TrEMBL record:
Family: Belongs to the MIP/aquaporin (TC 1.A.8) family.
Record's keyword terms, sorted: Membrane, Transmembrane, Transmembrane helix, Transport
GO MF annotation list: channel activity
Name of the gene this protein is made from: aqpZ
Protein name: Aquaporin Z
Amino acid sequence: MSDTLTQPTTGSRLAAEVVGTFILVLGGVGTAVFAAGFVGDPSSPVNVGFLGVALAFGLTIVVGVYAFGPISGGHFNPAVTLGLAAAGRFAWKDVAGYVIAQIVGGAIASSLIFAVAMGQPGGYDGTLGANGYGDASPGGYSLLSVGLIEVVLTAVFLFVIIGATSDRAPAGFAGIAIGLTLTLIHLISIPISNTSVNPARSIASAIYGGSEALIQLWAFLVFPALGGLLAGWLFKPLFEATRRVPSA
């Protein structure tokens, strides 16, 4: 008698997306809030800097993909969900549920981060790692610069995800490739936009990031979503074109 194959329930998949996105925001944004801006003793600063934040985001994806990928696919990002649906790798009917779960997971994480941050002497008056352009950009970059980098880097992220999880890719290495790609993306774009490429992460920070973060949030919903969709639509015609090989 053959074994019966089982599939995770919808509830299990959504729970995995909540927890995975929670870990992503807690690890990445938490590092930015608690470790990237803390100076400690002036003679011996304790500060992980941009490199530490980039690594934190990459590591959270590696952890999440291997822990929860077998359950939900390990999206943790509305742009990823949209891109995979556009590429035909994910059912459109399930997109809304995944996006809501990701936003909920991110919001829970940012609420925890904010609650902890308020416990420091004098409370907390930062932006919780919110994304921004113009005066809200770490480097003062314009909306055009931010839009270009967010669309392109989100598309690159989706190209890697779709390629690394294809049937032709070596089994078992997708999480590493995806995590390293997210690290690289942050190294490039933290000075430009504080790096979104993930609307759920941007919403999570904007909730506690002040009025300017909320006003500018639209950009970090639109640009990553556009980049994800473009990559999903373009992947097959660009990279999955096949030719018939004549038999010997």
